[in-house]
Write a structure and sequence with these properties.
The complex is a heterodimer. By secondary structure, chain A is an alpha+beta fold. Helices cover 29% and strands 24% of the residues of chain A. Chain A has a five-stranded antiparallel sheet. In chain A, α1 packs across α2. Chain A starts with a helix and ends in a 25-residue tail after the last helix. The chains are: A alpha+beta, B alpha/beta.
Chain lengths: 111, 601
């Protein structure tokens, strides 16, 4: 298992024996790992039980269940058209007010 | 000047201490301890320097508690001075990001408002006061740390606030008992607006929610402070709507009072951590006042972590929190999905609900104002849901209809510099010669046009020709030697291609291209004998060719004429076969050309 896990981590550009041990101890029936956007999630079924921050060059989603490493493009879920649009969108562009602050004087909320 | 990376909303909590002990407070015991006073100023100064130096520009820098006004006036003044200076120094940057410069702003329980009135007035500080309505419940729930009533002083300070000359408003928290007392609630809005004289146009209503810190402090929730059920929130809204319909406050009621539940607020962001930050006097950074109560909403400490990490942690931490929670099936089908994005993640994690705790109310608000909050079309909803799940609910991704095959498969290598057309030409001595801008020139009525490859140039010219035009092609004297052995030069030809802008669909690719009218070839020796040598060029009259076939030229339709040699043309096509990047880059005719209209007399 540890060889496979090492290969999985190497795809993320990580080499960490402690992490390999942790992952090997975690992987089992119904459990898998999911890496996306700087975060490695530990899934037991559909529940996140742990997460580790790490940096990787990949913009894909990487899944690992001990037997298979799946690299999934965002376009797999979004479609090519949306994926292309997504890079042009300005995230969170409409929310400018913090709750409990009520200083609604930006974005012309209160004139 | 530092590059601006993004605007952020920064709440500053100079002290966690609060002089009150409200029964439904989600911060629980956290407000019993204050930060150092000197620290309050130094931290803000350091934070402003650090955020701006790294390209993160607070477009809104506001003060929140604890209770800001428990600080001594001297400290408050230093904080206001610092903030004012920040806005002065960054006015252009903030405006360039599309924001207006806000006034200084504090959130306060108003208990010490009278003590700092002159200071607040001097700095034109915008005031948002927290008050319970009906005031009878303020008396009951908003008492000071010693359990003593705050109401008489609050009423005096509401009167003072009414005469305060700068921006001001009050907000209230609604719980079960407030709904039970809704007639009194409505009566007190009128009382404050008409009798006390405080303009209630900018009033805000919030709903309490069950929180772990509150349970920690009170163990058993104080009777009456339980959060409203969704149907009760709607009942509350409907009663308010009914009560103020037709009054001078109706407009404000519709647009301002319930604004917290609209897409303009942080609660409705798909990831609030990408923009909203709360900084404490001790340097700790959290998501917001609610998140202050939880390590799961902590992003770092400005004295111990890099600003880049803190900013990145905002987005990452919220994604992580979101992925720890489920999503209601109802949300997946909701036509207002992107107006809500499941609401505040902190409230969901505290209450265990898997959709916005004000979902039903939000839908009612949106339906009441369809122009401002239009429902999503089916396609828009699906798209918004997919975008959201990809970031926030990985576990639900497998429920989506997926796109198994790539629509386009263009290798990213196409965009590498080494595969650019210019780079390929530079690396090939024959191509360098073929693409030389000195190869061909066209002289029309004494004016000489340098001809270049149409796929290289960023500027093109269109000329006008006619039967009276003198039209000569200037051909570089060594053109026939390019990629040609000396003994083969006589077999080389000048090759002219004439096209017309009447589109035709060609070949296996079914590309729509300009229509080919003819190709003309003349062998080197014949060409030389028909030309006049002028310097290092052969001058060749092509007017007879064009006049002979001028019947092919149509009124107001552009024509396109290309010049090359047989050897250069063959090299181009061989290169296309050998090099896919060149093939793609030179998918259109690469030869020297000029476009023209034929003017008929």
């Amino acid at each position: 298992m540890s060889k496979k896990t090492d290969i999985f981590l190497s795809q993320l550009g990580v080499s960490d024996p402690n992490l390999t041990t942790k992952i090997d101890g975690f992987i089992g029936e119904g459990r898998n790992l999911l890496y996306r956007d700087g975060q490695l999630y530990f899934y037991d079924g559909d529940k996140v039980t742990d997460a580790i921050s790490m940096q990787s060059k990949t913009s894909n989603i990487i899944r690992y269940d001990g037997n298979t490493i799946s690299s999934i493009s965002n376009a797999y879920y979004l479609g090519e058209d949306i994926e292309a649009d997504r890079t042009r969108l300005k995230p969170e562009s409409t929310n400018t007010n913090n709750n409990n602050n009520n200083n609604n004087n930006n974005n012309n909320n209160n004139g | 000047m530092t590059e601006i990376k993004k605007p952020i909303h920064l709440l500053y909590v100079p002290t966690l201490y609060c002089n009150m002990s409200c029964s439904y407070c989600y911060l629980g015991l956290e407000t019993d301890v204050g930060s150092g006073r000197r620290e309050a100023v130094d931290t803000l100064k350091y934070a402003i320097e650090s955020f701006t130096k790294n390209g993160y520009i607070p477009y809104n820098l506001s003060f929140h508690g604890g209770e800001v006004t428990t600080l001594p006036a001297k400290v408050l003044e230093e904080l206001f001075e610092l903030s004012q200076q920040y806005y002065r120094d960054h006015v252009e940057q903030i405006r360039s990001l599309g924001f207006t410069i806000p006034p200084l702003h504090i959130k306060t329980n108003l208990y010490n408002f009278h003590k700092h009135y002159e200071l607040l007035e001097k700095y034109e500080v915008s005031i948002s006061g927290s008050v319970d309505l009906p005031l009878r419940l303020h008396e009951k729930y908003r008492r000071n740390k010693h359990g003593v009533s705050t109401l008489p002083r609050i009423v005096d300070n509401l009167k003072l606030l009414a005469s305060y000359p700068h921006r001001k408003k009050i907000s209230c928290v609604v719980t079960k008992e407030h709904l039970d007392s809704i007639d009194e609630f409505i009566a007190d809005i009128h009382h404050i607006h008409y009798d006390i004289g405080l303009d209630m146009e900018r009033f805000n209503i919030m709903f309490s929610f069950d929180s772990s810190k509150n349970r920690e402090k009170f163990e058993i929730p104080v009777e009456g402070t339980q959060m409203l059920r969704p149907e009760e929130q709607v009942a509350f809204y409907r009663r308010i709507k009914e009560a103020f319909a037709g009054t001078e406050l109706e407009g404000a009621m519709r647009t301002e009072w319930f604004k917290e539940f609209t897409p303009e607020y942080c609660c409705s962001a798909s990831n609030c951590g990408s923009k909203f930050f709360l900084l404490q006097g001790d340097g700790e950074v959290f998501s917001c006042p609610r998140g202050q109560a939880s390590t799961e909403y902590r992003y770092g400490n400005i004295f111990r972590d890099t600003i880049e990490n803190i900013i990145a942690n905002g987005t990452k931490q919220i994604e992580l929190n979101e992925n720890r929670m489920g999503i209601s099936d109802e949300c997946l089908e909701c036509e207002y999905f992107s107006s809500c994005n499941l609401g505040c993640p902190f409230v969901r994690s505290e209450t265990g609900v898997s959709k916005s705790y004000t979902c039903l109310l939000q839908k009612e608000l949106y339906r009441d104002d369809p122009l401002r909050y239009p429902p999503l079309s089916e396609d828009e909803r699906k798209r918004a849901v997919r975008e959201y799940l990809l970031r926030n609910k990985h576990a639900a991704l497998d429920t989506l209809e997926t796109h198994r095959y790539k629509k386009f498969n263009l290798t990213h290598e196409l965009y590498q510099d080494r595969n650019s057309l210019m780079h390929i030409i530079e690396g090939d001595t024959v191509l360098r010669d073929i693409y030389l801008k000195e190869n061909f020139r066209l002289e029309v009525d004494g004016r000489v046009y340098a001809l270049e490859s149409q796929i290289l140039k960023n500027r093109s010219q269109t000329i006008f020709l006619g039967e009276d035009s003198s039209i000569s092609l200037h051909v570089a004297e060594d053109i026939f030697s390019i990629d040609t052995h000396p003994e083969d030069e006589p077999n080389n030809t000048l090759h002219i291609m004439l096209l017309r802008d009447t589109p035709v669909v060609y070949g296996d690719e079914a590309r729509t291209k300009q229509e080919h009218l003819w190709d003309y070839s003349i062998y080197r020796n014949a060409f030389v004998s028909a030309s006049e040598k002028v310097g290092s060029y052969y001058r060749y009259d092509i007017a007879p060719l064009l006049i002979r076939d001028s019947y092919l030229f149509l009124d107001s339709i552009k024509n396109n004429i290309f010049f090359t040699t047989k050897a250069m043309r063959e090299y181009h096509y061989k290169k296309q076969q050998k090099n896919a990047f060149y093939h793609i880059a030179a998918i259109n005719l690469p030869f020297s050309n000029i476009e023209f209209y034929w003017i008929k007399e």
